[in-house]
Protein backbone atom coordinates (compact mmCIF):
# COMPACT_ATOMS: atom_id res chain seq x y z
CA UNK A 1 0.00 0.00 0.00
CA UNK A 2 1.49 3.32 -1.08
CA UNK A 3 -0.71 5.86 0.67
CA UNK A 4 -3.46 5.95 3.29
CA UNK A 5 -5.98 8.76 3.71
CA UNK A 6 -7.53 8.83 7.19
CA UNK A 7 -10.67 10.74 8.15
CA UNK A 8 -12.06 11.08 11.67
CA UNK A 9 -15.66 12.27 11.66
CA UNK A 10 -18.28 13.11 14.25
CA UNK A 11 -21.75 14.54 13.59
CA UNK A 12 -20.85 16.47 10.43
CA UNK A 13 -22.52 14.29 7.83
CA UNK A 14 -23.06 17.06 5.28
CA UNK A 15 -19.39 17.98 5.38
CA UNK A 16 -18.40 14.32 5.24
CA UNK A 17 -20.60 13.66 2.22
CA UNK A 18 -19.04 16.49 0.24
CA UNK A 19 -15.53 15.69 1.49
CA UNK A 20 -15.66 12.08 0.26
CA UNK A 21 -17.29 13.06 -3.02
CA UNK A 22 -14.35 15.41 -3.68
CA UNK A 23 -11.54 13.26 -2.25
CA UNK A 24 -12.06 9.97 -4.08
CA UNK A 25 -11.79 11.39 -7.64
CA UNK A 26 -8.67 13.34 -6.59
CA UNK A 27 -6.70 10.13 -5.94
CA UNK A 28 -4.78 8.88 -8.99
CA UNK A 29 -3.37 5.48 -8.06
CA UNK A 30 -6.48 4.02 -6.50
CA UNK A 31 -5.04 0.50 -6.57
CA UNK A 32 -2.22 1.70 -4.29
CA UNK A 33 -4.36 3.77 -1.93
CA UNK A 34 -6.90 3.37 0.85
CA UNK A 35 -9.33 5.77 2.50
CA UNK A 36 -10.10 4.90 6.12
CA UNK A 37 -13.09 6.70 7.63
CA UNK A 38 -13.73 6.38 11.35
CA UNK A 39 -17.14 7.43 12.65
CA UNK A 40 -16.38 8.64 16.16
CA UNK A 41 -19.77 7.88 17.71
CA UNK A 42 -21.96 10.05 15.48
CA UNK A 43 -25.66 10.35 16.23
CA UNK A 44 -26.71 12.22 13.06
CA UNK A 45 -26.98 10.94 9.46
CA UNK A 46 -23.31 9.96 9.21
CA UNK A 47 -24.20 6.26 9.04
CA UNK A 48 -26.35 6.83 5.95
CA UNK A 49 -23.54 8.76 4.24
CA UNK A 50 -21.04 6.00 4.95
CA UNK A 51 -23.46 3.32 3.74
CA UNK A 52 -23.10 4.81 0.26
CA UNK A 53 -19.42 3.79 0.28
CA UNK A 54 -19.74 0.38 1.92
CA UNK A 55 -19.11 -1.46 -1.36
CA UNK A 56 -16.31 0.85 -2.55
CA UNK A 57 -13.04 -1.17 -2.44
CA UNK A 58 -11.04 2.02 -1.83
CA UNK A 59 -12.96 2.92 1.35
CA UNK A 60 -12.70 1.21 4.73
CA UNK A 61 -15.29 2.21 7.31
CA UNK A 62 -14.81 1.98 11.07
CA UNK A 63 -17.89 2.64 13.20
CA UNK A 64 -17.50 3.37 16.91
CA UNK A 65 -20.41 3.74 19.31
CA UNK A 66 -18.52 6.13 21.59
CA UNK A 67 -16.81 9.42 20.85
CA UNK A 68 -13.14 8.96 21.77
CA UNK A 69 -12.21 12.51 20.84
CA UNK A 70 -8.93 13.17 19.10
CA UNK A 71 -7.42 10.11 20.77
CA UNK A 72 -9.19 8.10 18.06
CA UNK A 73 -6.35 9.15 15.73
CA UNK A 74 -4.10 6.72 17.58
CA UNK A 75 -6.18 3.82 16.30
CA UNK A 76 -6.53 5.37 12.84
CA UNK A 77 -2.78 5.80 12.38
CA UNK A 78 -2.23 2.25 13.55
CA UNK A 79 -4.66 0.92 10.93
CA UNK A 80 -3.07 2.83 8.05
CA UNK A 81 -1.07 0.47 5.83
CA UNK A 82 0.41 3.06 3.48
CA UNK A 83 4.00 4.23 3.32
CA UNK A 84 2.49 7.71 3.46
CA UNK A 85 -0.40 8.78 5.68
CA UNK A 86 -2.62 11.75 4.90
CA UNK A 87 -4.86 13.27 7.56
CA UNK A 88 -8.03 14.68 5.98
CA UNK A 89 -10.40 16.79 8.07
CA UNK A 90 -14.02 16.08 7.18
CA UNK A 91 -14.61 19.80 6.56
CA UNK A 92 -12.16 19.90 3.64
CA UNK A 93 -14.47 20.16 0.65
CA UNK A 94 -12.17 20.43 -2.37
CA UNK A 95 -8.80 18.95 -3.34
CA UNK A 96 -6.30 19.30 -6.18
CA UNK A 97 -6.21 16.49 -8.73
CA UNK A 98 -3.59 13.80 -8.22
CA UNK A 99 -3.49 14.39 -4.48
CA UNK A 100 -1.60 11.17 -3.73
CA UNK A 101 1.17 11.85 -6.25
CA UNK A 102 1.38 15.46 -5.09
CA UNK A 103 2.15 14.61 -1.48
CA UNK A 104 4.61 11.86 -2.38
CA UNK A 105 6.46 14.09 -4.85
CA UNK A 106 6.79 16.91 -2.31
CA UNK A 107 8.00 14.71 0.52
CA UNK A 108 10.60 13.25 -1.82
CA UNK A 109 11.69 16.74 -2.93
CA UNK A 110 11.88 17.92 0.71
CA UNK A 111 13.36 15.00 2.69
CA UNK A 112 14.09 17.33 5.63
CA UNK A 113 10.34 17.82 6.14
CA UNK A 114 8.26 15.50 8.30
CA UNK A 115 4.80 17.03 7.95
CA UNK A 116 3.44 18.96 4.96
CA UNK A 117 -0.06 20.23 4.27
CA UNK A 118 -1.92 21.71 1.36
CA UNK A 119 -2.30 25.46 1.24
CA UNK A 120 -5.84 26.72 1.91
CA UNK A 121 -8.28 28.79 -0.09
CA UNK A 122 -8.94 32.03 1.75
CA UNK A 123 -12.12 33.91 0.91
CA UNK A 124 -14.67 36.23 2.49
CA UNK A 125 -16.01 33.32 4.57
CA UNK A 126 -12.89 31.66 5.98
CA UNK A 127 -9.12 31.95 6.35
CA UNK A 128 -8.91 28.16 6.34
CA UNK A 129 -7.23 28.24 9.78
CA UNK A 130 -3.96 29.42 8.21
CA UNK A 131 -1.99 31.98 10.25
CA UNK A 132 -0.88 35.26 8.59
CA UNK A 133 1.67 34.94 5.79
CA UNK A 134 4.39 36.71 7.79
CA UNK A 135 4.71 33.48 9.82
CA UNK A 136 6.13 31.65 6.79
CA UNK A 137 9.43 31.48 4.91
CA UNK A 138 9.59 30.00 1.41
CA UNK A 139 11.94 27.12 0.62
CA UNK A 140 12.49 25.80 -2.92
CA UNK A 141 13.56 22.35 -4.12
CA UNK A 142 13.32 20.91 -7.62
CA UNK A 143 11.06 23.76 -8.71
CA UNK A 144 8.65 23.12 -5.85
CA UNK A 145 7.92 25.66 -3.11
CA UNK A 146 7.04 25.02 0.52
CA UNK A 147 6.06 27.73 2.99
CA UNK A 148 7.90 26.68 6.15
CA UNK A 149 5.91 27.59 9.21
CA UNK A 150 2.73 26.73 11.15
CA UNK A 151 1.20 23.61 9.62
CA UNK A 152 -2.37 22.52 10.32
CA UNK A 153 -3.70 19.04 9.81
CA UNK A 154 -6.63 19.95 7.54
CA UNK A 155 -5.05 17.88 4.71
CA UNK A 156 -1.51 16.93 5.67
CA UNK A 157 0.90 14.08 4.96
CA UNK A 158 3.70 12.30 6.80
CA UNK A 159 5.74 9.17 6.23
CA UNK A 160 4.78 6.11 8.25
CA UNK A 161 8.45 5.31 8.92
CA UNK A 162 8.89 8.69 10.62
CA UNK A 163 5.69 8.20 12.62
CA UNK A 164 6.93 4.82 13.85
CA UNK A 165 9.99 6.53 15.33
CA UNK A 166 7.88 8.78 17.55
CA UNK A 167 4.89 6.44 17.85
CA UNK A 168 5.32 5.54 21.52
CA UNK A 169 5.43 9.17 22.62
CA UNK A 170 2.41 9.94 20.45
CA UNK A 171 0.39 7.05 21.90
CA UNK A 172 1.22 8.02 25.48
CA UNK A 173 0.06 11.63 25.06
CA UNK A 174 -3.57 12.53 25.69
CA UNK A 175 -4.98 14.43 22.73
CA UNK A 176 -7.51 17.23 23.03
CA UNK A 177 -8.18 20.66 21.53
CA UNK A 178 -5.15 22.09 23.36
CA UNK A 179 -2.84 19.31 22.15
CA UNK A 180 -4.17 18.09 18.82
CA UNK A 181 -2.90 15.26 16.65
CA UNK A 182 -1.37 17.60 14.07
CA UNK A 183 0.26 19.85 16.64
CA UNK A 184 1.76 16.88 18.46
CA UNK A 185 3.08 15.35 15.23
CA UNK A 186 4.71 18.64 14.20
CA UNK A 187 6.26 18.97 17.66
CA UNK A 188 7.57 15.40 17.83
CA UNK A 189 8.92 15.38 14.28
CA UNK A 190 10.75 18.61 15.04
CA UNK A 191 12.11 17.78 18.50
CA UNK A 192 12.86 14.09 18.05
CA UNK A 193 13.70 13.84 14.34
CA UNK A 194 14.76 17.41 13.47
CA UNK A 195 12.23 17.48 10.63
CA UNK A 196 10.49 20.66 9.49
CA UNK A 197 6.86 21.32 8.62
CA UNK A 198 5.15 23.59 6.12
CA UNK A 199 2.54 24.16 3.43
CA UNK A 200 2.68 23.33 -0.27
CA UNK A 201 2.48 26.87 -1.59
CA UNK A 202 0.84 26.34 -4.98
CA UNK A 203 -1.75 23.64 -4.31
CA UNK A 204 -4.93 24.43 -2.39
CA UNK A 205 -7.85 22.81 -0.64
CA UNK A 206 -11.01 24.41 0.71
CA UNK A 207 -10.88 23.99 4.48
CA UNK A 208 -14.42 25.11 5.29
CA UNK A 209 -13.81 26.03 8.92
CA UNK A 210 -15.50 28.90 10.67
CA UNK A 211 -19.05 29.94 11.53
CA UNK A 212 -20.17 30.73 7.97
CA UNK A 213 -19.73 27.19 6.71
CA UNK A 214 -21.01 25.71 9.97
CA UNK A 215 -24.25 27.63 9.46
CA UNK A 216 -24.43 26.94 5.72
CA UNK A 217 -24.09 23.19 6.20
CA UNK A 218 -26.26 23.00 9.30
CA UNK A 219 -23.52 22.02 11.76
CA UNK A 220 -23.63 25.08 14.02
CA UNK A 221 -24.90 23.22 17.09
CA UNK A 222 -22.20 20.59 16.67
CA UNK A 223 -19.46 23.22 16.52
CA UNK A 224 -20.82 25.01 19.59
CA UNK A 225 -20.86 21.71 21.48
CA UNK A 226 -17.29 20.88 20.45
CA UNK A 227 -15.82 24.24 21.45
CA UNK A 228 -17.88 24.41 24.64
CA UNK A 229 -16.60 20.99 25.75
CA UNK A 230 -13.05 22.19 25.06
CA UNK A 231 -13.57 25.34 27.13
CA UNK A 232 -12.81 27.61 24.16
CA UNK A 233 -15.29 30.28 25.17
CA UNK A 234 -14.02 32.98 22.83
CA UNK A 235 -14.69 30.74 19.83
CA UNK A 236 -18.11 29.84 21.23
CA UNK A 237 -18.98 33.53 21.40
CA UNK A 238 -17.72 34.08 17.85
CA UNK A 239 -20.02 31.34 16.56
CA UNK A 240 -22.96 32.57 18.63
CA UNK A 241 -22.50 36.11 17.35
CA UNK A 242 -22.59 34.79 13.80
CA UNK A 243 -26.01 33.30 14.46
CA UNK A 244 -27.48 36.68 15.38
In short:
With 244 residues, the protein is α/β, with parallel strands linked by helices. 36% of the residues lie in helices and 26% in strands. Strands 1, 2, 3, 4, 5, 6, 7, 8, 9 and 10 form a ten-stranded mixed β-sheet that branches.
Outline the structure in words.
Helix 5 (160-172) packs across helix 6. The chain has 244 residues and is an alpha/beta fold. The chain has helices at 13-23, 46-51, 72-79, 99-109, 160-172, 181-193, 211-216, 220-229, 233-243; strands at residues 3-9, 33-40, 59-64, 84-88, 92-94, 113-120, 137-141, 144-148, 155-159, 196-207. Strands 1, 2, 3, 4, 5, 6, 7, 8, 9 and 10 form a ten-stranded mixed β-sheet that branches. The longest helix has 13 residues, at 160-172.
Main beta-sheet annotation: 10 strands, mixed
CATH architecture of the largest domain: Alpha-Beta Complex
**Count of DSSP-assigned helices:** 9
> Residue-averaged pLDDT, rounded?
96
Key terms for this structure?
9 helices; Spore Coat Polysaccharide Biosynthesis Protein SpsA, Chain A; ten-stranded mixed sheet; globular; 244 residues; single chain; alpha/beta; 10 strands
